[in-house]
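Work Package 3 (structural annotation) set out to generate three-dimensional models for the target panel prioritized at the project kickoff. During this period the team completed the workflow that converts sequence records into discrete structure tokens, so that structures can be stored uniformly alongside our sequence database. As a representative example, we reproduce one entry of 159 residues exactly as it appears in the project archive.
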Amino acid sequence: MTSEVSAFAELFAGQYQSLVRLAGLLGADDPEDIAQEAFARLHSRRLRDDGAALGYLRVTVCNLTRKRLRHLRIARLYRTGPPSPMPSSEHVALVAEKHRELLAALDRLPRRQREVLVLRYWLDLSEREIAEAMGVSPGSVKTHASRGIAALSKALETS
């Protein structure tokens, strides 16, 4: 082993744990990786002063940690949530069939009951707004809604 390799191995053995602690204290999520990357950069670089190696390693750990935290902050800003689960094709078919059954049952209702239910549940109008739109009293709206819901429930139970 050459003296250069031996000096590097001694530096690694003596300073690796302290550099891992430094990266951890600075907030790195992967302090071991950062310390290893600092040593890899030192190994590929030739320093003029052999005594500057420890300073170089500390500065490199600080810079790499800062860079990593900045990257994580940006990644979190643009992170999307997990994709929403897709319903199975059987579920989609069942929902479509139930929707068709509901529309068919709604179509069989008397005109006023159908109008009241559509205005209430599809357009989300209040009883007063429905009464104004249909030109009837609010009591008539309540009656038609009650009878329409009862008829729909009965029609959908049998199907």
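Residues 11 and 54 are 8 Å apart (CA to CA).
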